[in-house]
Amino acid sequence: MSARDWIEKDFYRELGVTSDASADDIKKSYRKLARELHPDANPGDAKAETRFKAVSEAYGVLSDTSKRKQYDEARRLFSGGGGFPGGFGTGGFDVGDLFGRQGGQPPGGAGGLGDLLGGLFNRRAGASASATRPRRGEDVETDVRIDFTEAVKGATVPMRLSSPAACGTCSGSGARPGTTARTCANCGGAGLVTRSQGAFAFSEPCTDCRGTGRIVDDPCPECGGDGVSTKSRTLTIRIPSGVDDGQRIRLAGQGEPGRNNGPNGDLFVRVHVNPHPLFGRSGNDLTLNVPVTFPELALGTTLTVPTLEGKVTLKVPAGTASGRVLRAKAKGIAKRDGQVGDLLITLTVAVPNNMDAAAREALENYASATAEHDPRAELNALLEKRSV
């Protein structure tokens, strides 16, 4: 992200939310837009891919509490023309120099603005080293959708991801292959220069190297000297068995590249599970609704029901009530810690929509034979008691 992006882009408008939107609203809006604009859902649509990158960039700032706070502060400080509050000018250099364009983002990632403003008025000891010290790359979050069976048993899923990565041509140096960046002679590689003004001595970003401490005389043709380029890459993700819908999987070091030889960020993959036409889930247990007839419950029977691994046979005792739950041991979800759930089978009476004359006559004879039995006796007694 360039310095002008940090200050001038309206990330809230990019995500379709207001500046006072909650973190949950920002996340919901991002997920909706990411699903609609993802390159896999819009093959060959360059406009959708550009919007997808812009939405991802905006979410990368607004989803991080610290970065969002500094982004808001930066917009308030510089939206009026680039001057500091209280009448201090920028000394003639572009406000983008405050952050340093060659680094591709504010120096120090999320802490860039705070570090530099602190150093500007000598409020942070050692601030001159902030431009060149190693910085960890930002974390990246994406989504993947899998089938119910894959969530239960685990799966290996290929996924195409568009995100910032170290430039493959210059290996992240920003310089054309065969050349190297040189240390800035003006600031000695510190990225800041100190000058006195009356009773004050303060530091400001070096205008020669734009605060990076390095000067690239011959920029890389692929990344333009930034050292980072947005590209599509294919990753293979191992989904563990028993993963829950909405669970996040962390892939260490697969996020955005670090700065100044800092470590890469992480990639977090949020898993969405498609529902199964037959089975549901309750923790480690699988659930299944099985229709039965009244005679099967009244007289007892033996049922054969499906499982994810095949089938199982269960005995239904005579006089079983509708809604009774039977348990098939160890036919549920096996997790990596060795725990295995059960299959919970709910029996529900299926009432026929139409009956022929013989069936109706038989049912009427049964109703006549059991007329003295009142299944609602306790309920009626309670109603009578309350009406007294």
Q: What features would you describe in this structure?
A:
- This protein has 388 residues and is an alpha+beta fold.
- It folds into 2 domains: 271 residues, DnaJ domain (Helix Hairpins), CATH 1.10.287.110; 109 residues, Urease metallochaperone UreE, N-terminal domain (HSP40/DNAj peptide-binding domain).
- Helix content is 26%, strand content 24%.
- The protein has 10 helices and 15 strands.
- The chain has a 4-stranded mixed beta sheet.
- Strand 4 and strand 5 form a beta hairpin.
- The longest helix is centred in the N-terminal third of the chain and has 17 residues.
- The protein is elongated, with a radius of gyration of 32 Å.
Task: Kindly summarize this structure in a few lines.
The chain has two domains: 3-273, Helix Hairpins (Orthogonal Bundle); 279-387, HSP40/DNAj peptide-binding domain. It is built from ten helices and 15 strands. It has helices spanning 3-8, 11-15, 23-37, 46-62, 65-78, 112-120, 148-153, 294-299, 357-369, 377-387, and strands at 140-146, 155-166, 182-183, 192-197, 200-205, 214-215, 228-239, 248-251, 267-273, 279-282, 285-292, 301-306, 311-316, 325-328, 343-349.
Tags for this model:
3-stranded mixed beta sheet, alpha+beta, HSP40/DNAj peptide-binding domain, elongated, 388 residues, 2 domains, Helix Hairpins, 10 helices, single chain
List the helices and strands and how they pair.
Elements: H1 3-8, H2 11-15, H3 23-37, H4 46-62, H5 65-78, H6 112-120, E1 140-146, H7 148-153, E2 155-166, E3 182-183, E4 192-197, E5 200-205, E6 214-215, E7 228-239, E8 248-251, E9 267-273, E10 279-282, E11 285-292, H8 294-299, E12 301-306, E13 311-316, E14 325-328, E15 343-349, H9 357-369, H10 377-387
Parallel strand pairs: 1-9, 11-15
Antiparallel strand pairs: 2-7, 3-6, 4-5, 8-9, 10-11, 12-13, 14-15
Helix pairs in contact: 3-4
